[in-house]
Each structure stands twice: as C-alpha cells, then as structure tokens.
Amino acid sequence: MIFRPFYFEQLRQTLRRSPICGLLGPRQTGKSTLAHEIARFFPQSHVFDLESPADLLRLTNPELTLSRLSGLIILDEIQLRPDLFPILRVLADRARPDVQFLILGSASPQLIRHSSESLAGRIQFVDLHGFNLSEIGSAALEKLWLRGGFPRSFLADNDSDSSAWRESFVRTFLERDLPQLGLRINATAMRRFWTMLAHRHGQIWNASELARSMALSDKTVRNWLDELSLTFMVRQLQPWFQNLGKRLVKSPKIYLRDSGLLHHLLGLSTMQQLLGHPAVGASWEGFALEQILQLLRPTDAWFYATQSGAELDLFLQHNGRRLGFEFKYNESPRTTRSMRIALADLQLDHLWIICPGTVQTQLDEKISVCGLATAETLQQETG
Q1: CA 22 – CA 106 distance, rounded (Å)
Q2: Which of 108, 127, 146 is the endpoint of a domain?
C-alpha cells in the first residue's frame, strides 16, 4: 500500500471543519482504504457498505439507526441510496459534537445534485484521484505513465496483469457502474465513443464530427461526454478567452484523465508499444498536464489557442501569478513563435516547458525547461 499524505491531511482537515465530508472519485482509487485509515484516529467508527445486503438491512430505518451512533460514521457507495441525504441533513443539524459523517461515492449527477440540494452549507468535498508522481517517486515515472494511477493497475506484478485489470475495469464501469449511476447507455456504444475520444486525446472537441461517426445527434454525444467527465474519466479543459482583439478557439480540449485507460483503449500494453505509437506526444501531454494540476492544485485551469495557430497547452492563475505550461515529449525543447505570442497575449509571469527527464534550464528571462521528474521544484518557484 502507498500512503497518501496529501489526501489524508485534506480529509482530516475537512472532517474538522464540516459535520459531513464527501470523498468523491472514480471507483478503485482507494476511497475505502483512505476512509479506514482516517477512522483509526476516531474513538469509534461505523462503516456501512451500501452494496452489502447486511448493511442495507441495518439501515431499514436509517434515521433511527444513525441517530444512535457516535464517532465517525462512514457510508460507502452513497450514490446507491440518495434517500439518505435528507436524513443526513436532519442529523447534521442536531449539531452533536461527537458525530461526524464521511460519505464515499463515485461522482455522478445524482450524487452532486442531491448533496447540493439537501446538504448545502453542511458538507465539504474532497476529490480523490489515482496515484501521482509525488506519491510514487520519480523513479517510477514511466511505469505510472504507462499503467496510469489506479492502484491495482499501477501495483500489478507485470504489464500483462495491469492491462487485464484495466480491461476488467472498463467492462465493469460500462456494464455495471454507469447503470447504477442512473445512466442508461448501451455499453457497446459507450465503449466505442470512449475509444474514439482516446484517438482524439488532447484535441479540440468537435461534437459534429463524433456525432456523424456514430450516427447520433450532437446533443447525445455532448451528453455522453458530460457523463464521462462527471465520473472523472474525461477532463474537459476549457479555453481561455477574453476580448483580446483576436479570434480565439472557444471549444474545450478533451483528455482521458488516466493515462493507463488511454493506453488500454488505444491497444497499448508495453512501453515499447507506446513509444512507437503516433499518439505518444499527445499521451505525454495529457499525462504531464494531470501531474502538474495535481502538483499545484489550482482552483481553475485553461488552455489558450487562436484561430491563427498560436497555442498554449495550460494556463493557470496561481498565487497571484499568471503561469503557462507547454508539454513536449522532447528532451531538448526550444522556444517557438507560438510560445512567445502566448507569453505576450496572456501577460504571463513565466512559461515552463515540461519534458521527460530531470533537465532544468532557463531559455529566456520568462521561459524555462523543467523535466517532469523534477517538477516538484515548481511548488517553490510558483509560491
């Protein structure tokens, strides 16, 4: 098991501030493991797995059962019992200092809607993602890139076992998890759509193109994209646009958030296959982007692109500074005209080119190269 100190501390602080904490994230990212770790610091803890018939029987009268308990009460897979949210509101309002609730669930439209309606002002959320580079160490960078951050995929004995686990995850997600979340989508059609997104990883979203390919409406593919985003499978990176006197791209860029699932849907199971594939550059861009976002944890993020071709992969406003990032699968990247245009247009304080390896060098007064393996230094440099 790999200890996850950032999430542990974030969860501990959230439970201290709020009577109810929601720990959200995809299945199999370690939510239950983290919940059991935090429970050891409470005098009493009670766990209800809402997929367990025995625990469901204990909750036949949920208000009576839960009101008699003290300590930390953990409700796992809460999205399966949305009727519990009004009851949690009542119990939270009783303000018993010896009771706190930790609810775990896969992100879903139902979960978000019910919690925001019933528990407004009473709940704070922590989003849990897969392993990141700061948790597993730079020596395992290529392994993390190839296999992705899902614990069982990353920790598998070999690449073949990791690939088999990811296939099982994809099938279970499509055939069981989505229907449980109330999303009635044909599993075969959704897998085809997900695979098509993998082949467009890092590209500007084009609903019409995908809709034509699948003989569906633009609205349908847009809804499917939103569902995959709400379940943490896909990131829609929104464009930055202001009235800069330029024609700007205004559609999001699409990334599969876990590089391991991306590679599985592309049919890549070894590092040799990945490095020889045309999508290696796009894969690196998405992987490095996720690592930077998990490292700096900004409140929001964008990309920048003009109709004339100037682009910037990632733009952040972080700690009062305007920061730009380009992701290049090249150990000796150089500045480009596009970077200089983005530097001026966005009035960046600094622009980093994130590449493989451990290189750290400054190309210009406001442009530096940083190897992803040493990217933790950015935390100090960005304040």
Answers
A1: 10
A2: 127
- Whether pTM > 0.90 for this model: the answer is yes
Q: How many CB atoms lie within 10 A of CB 280?
A: 15
Residue for token digits 């995908």?
Answer: 210
The answer for residues whose C-beta is within 8 angstroms of residue 290's C-beta and 6 or more apart is 132, 235, 255, 257, 259
Q: Do 53 and 144 reside in the same domain of the chain?
A: no
Q: Which amino acid is at 249?
A: V
Does one domain contain both 171 and 208?
Answer: yes
Query: Could you say which of 67, 98, 127 is where a domain stops?
Result: 127
242 vs 138: CA distance, rounded Å: 37
Looking at the structure of the chain, the number of domains it has is 2
Spatial distance between the Cα atoms of 328 and 311, rounded to a whole number of angstroms: 13
The DSSP string of 79-130 is GG-TTHHHHHHHHHHT--TTEEEEEEE---HHHHHHHHHHSTTTEEEEE--S
pLDDT band for position 27 (50/70/90)? confident
User: Domain range holding 86?
Assistant: 5-127
Rounded to whole angstroms, the Cα distance separating 379 from 383 reads 6
